[in-house]
Input
Amino acid sequence: MKKQWKKQWYRLDNAALIFPAIIRKNWNNVFRVAVTLHEQVDPETLSRAAADLKPRFPTIFVRLKAGFFWYYLETIQEAPRAEKDFAYPLTHMSRKELKTCCVRILYYENRIAVEMFHSVSDGSGAMVFLQNLTARYLEIRYGMTVPPEKGIVDWQEEPHPEETRDCFQLCTADRAIGRAEENAYHLTGNPEEGLFRHIVMGIVPTEKLLEKAHEQKVTVTAYLAAVMAEAVQKRQEEEGKPRKRMKPVKITIPVNLRKTFGLNTMRNFALAVNIGFDPRLGDYTHPQVCQLMHHQLAAETIPQRMAGRVTKNVEEQTNAVLRLVPLFIKRIVMRMVYSLSGESKGCLNVSNIGVISLPEVMKPYIERFEFIIGVQYSYPNNCSVVTWEGNTYISMIRGIRESELERLFFSRLVEEGIPVEIESN
Output
């Protein structure tokens, strides 16, 4: 028997607060997770699967609302129906659309894609939802049963309380760590017309990527960040500036706090750190850059330091004076804070969602996964990574015409002995 729908609302989690305030016409922080099947997607089955999952994932099926003091998320009565993928990935999600629903469920030939406004969840949370959407789709389509393991949940059970909580509130420290750091070099270029986004995907053998990372005694994320930093520095050198006028090269790495603190939520629970080097101090070898990235990432992401960073954000959210300020003033303040301490500190993101693991019964139906983050207001380029069944899929997106960064990055991987297969939209 179908349960009667009851409207619910959720305060924005700590990481989600900034996104509605900084929406602009050319940027509103939407990202995509996608899975490619071995057979063509049936849209009616996909719509039914989404409807079945709606009670199990209430924080996903929401719309954005504005109160007098804060934005908030409100559940919607019906799950959105699957739409045929249109135009290009990550088309603008307007405020009008967000007031209706903050998630899109799309299909095209063999691909299922979910596009999500970042106030709803982060990449890890969205990927869990996509995995479960795919599992339910396969169950309906082929009459199979997918066991609740490896990220798959029992879609008929009630949501676990932790899944709907703002887990940032649970992992604060006694002292906050501030955001003060030097501004980084910023990539520039000629903006594409009509907000078009170029996406270049490099498919590399995971075993070879791991081999090269292990040669440098670093993680895959640190290794990719090092190669990206080298590519960014080459771009800065091509501008012809004297060394003393160059700026630090820093890669922004979103860190999944679920692993750090052992908490499991479907809402945002990630925090970014900036790691890199200062070219004004001299040239760096490839091994040196790898070691810098590895040790900085390891040092910045220990639980104590992450808790201190979370505390800084939570203190601002719970400030008694700020809580009483009307939303239209908060919007202005948050935009100012973000412009001073947000994107100015890094060059671009390298967001690695990690290895996707699924029940064995699902694997024969699945070809690959993709994870694509959008460009940001002052980051014309971004990079996101996901690994599935022996291949690592590296998606580079840009909102400018110049493709030099992708060329430098993927060419450097090839120089290191890592074969790269390139696809593009």
User: Anything to note?
Assistant: The mean pLDDT is 93. The longest strand covers residues 30-37.
